[in-house]
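Fold this sequence, please.
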Amino acid sequence: MVGCPSSIGAIDGVVAPVAEYREFGGTVGLGTDQAPGPGHHDPLREARTAALLSKTDRADPTALPAWAALRTATVGGAEALGIDDRVGSLAEGKAADVVTVDVTALGVAPTVTEPLHTAVTNLVHSAVGRDVLDVFVAGRPVVRAGEFVDADPAAAVAEARERAAGVFDRATEDWRAAGSALVDAVDQGWL
């Protein structure tokens, strides 16, 4: 199972059963969907959302602890995709997929090691994508010092906007004819 807690919560108003699935021995990872969606395609945000909603849903602060949410987002995701023999953890023979996060960032700090180790808890509960410093995929840098190495984010956003406008233009007539309550919300300026 791949739980997408932000969008499931926003769209269906329910908590994705990430904690329960793990407890019953199921293979579960975390994902994001619904561009741009409430999860912002941010795996750190999804780990936080999964952990917090699990705790709230069960009225149990020990449900899906930070370490389990992080494992679900990394190793669990690789297991859910059936590629954990190649990615998901740092081990000899696996792709060198690594993310570094600024644990001194204002929203993440302070990270301490005594009397508790707060790095994982702070990472899961406080860090967001903008705190990512470096991303390596198969050992190759994709992001360095918070900037894309070989990508132009402004160009990607412009292309995405153009493609989305085209999809909406082609689908508007059919969408309006479907009679969804969303049509009224759009006409009233809510969407």
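The first strand starts at residue 2 and ends at 3. The beta strands are 2-3, 29-30, 98-101, 132-137, 140-144, 147-148.
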